[in-house]
Predict the 3D structure of the following.
Amino acid sequence: MFKKDPFGFDSITSGIECIIVFFLCISYMFIQLKGANTLTIYSTFDFWVVITFLIYFSGTFFLYILAQSMGRDVSFQKQYFIINITFNILKNILLCIAMTMKLNESVKPQKAVIPELDDEVFFREKI
Amino acid sequence: MSFLQTTLGVSSVLILGTLGMFFMAITLVSIVVFHQRRVIRFNKQIQKMEEERQQMLLRASIQFQEEERQRIAADLHDDAGPLLATARLYLNENLIHQEPALQLQSIFSAKQIIDDSIQLIRNISHSLMPPTLKNFGLEAAIKDLFEKINGSGVINSSARFHDNRQRLSDEQELLVFRILQELVTNIIKHSSAGFIHLTQNAQNNIVYFRIHHDGKGILQQDFEKMEQGSAGLGLKNIQSRIRVLNGKIYFEIDNTHTYYKVTIEVPREPAK
């Protein structure tokens, strides 16, 4: 990436991409804050996917912004490598957690097969 | 950016920026998570309170049913039982060995007692389901009830129905009748009122009933307090019936503080 000058890193596009992702993630959080959910937010698949991207792009935002101008700097290259790898690993771990949540969600309907317990009768009595 | 780069150095800008952004993201996520947990905890608390309230109403309803059963059992045991036993005594095996005049006397007495028993059982059945309500509807049943109260000469009572062209469903009429019966009983028992007046009217698919009386009444806050407390079984029953009707009840006093009024709102559900 840093050796081919004519095809160097495009910081502007990456920065805009990060900002769009931030905006979408914050919108999601705002909707969650306003909504009256009975389910805890961190037990949903969507939440983990959203925080994965939020953390990944917030961690690499400055990296991508500086990459175009500082690409030739060797010390920057080292830092780029470390930070990018760290946040990539973190992103993958969080995505794994998200997948686990998805797996739990898909398993749930099978557990929810409940036999007839005359709920309606009790409901009528309650009324 | 270039100013920061020159003063702090590239690596410092990069590390500080990255850490800053990372902690901002973490803070945002934490705020959302904690806020949502707090909202859920609050909702659960409200739900728990509502469940407790429902439980209390259910318990009151069961207690009321048990009391009603005990009353019926006592009526049958104390009144119908002895009457039928006496009739049996008149119609014993020795009857055929007695004088014809005595036989006739015994049969007449037994017949009289059986008639009394029939009347007693009829009264019990009428107290369970008023026949006027069943046959002629709420208006007739209420007017009948108020005429009976008026007949006692203690309280002046009257009922007026303005718009009862479209009747409530049978279940709703029974529930409204029971609520009004309970309210009127309470007024007679506790308020020392000189008059009770009931007015009915309907507007926009909602039927309104209002009872006016000049006795010692209660206000909305008293009703809520008594209904949530351990006492006030009758009021709990009123509240549970109102809930079943999806209606509302208001206890008020007029501006001149001369009479109390109880208003019931019942959304109309067409008769089946």
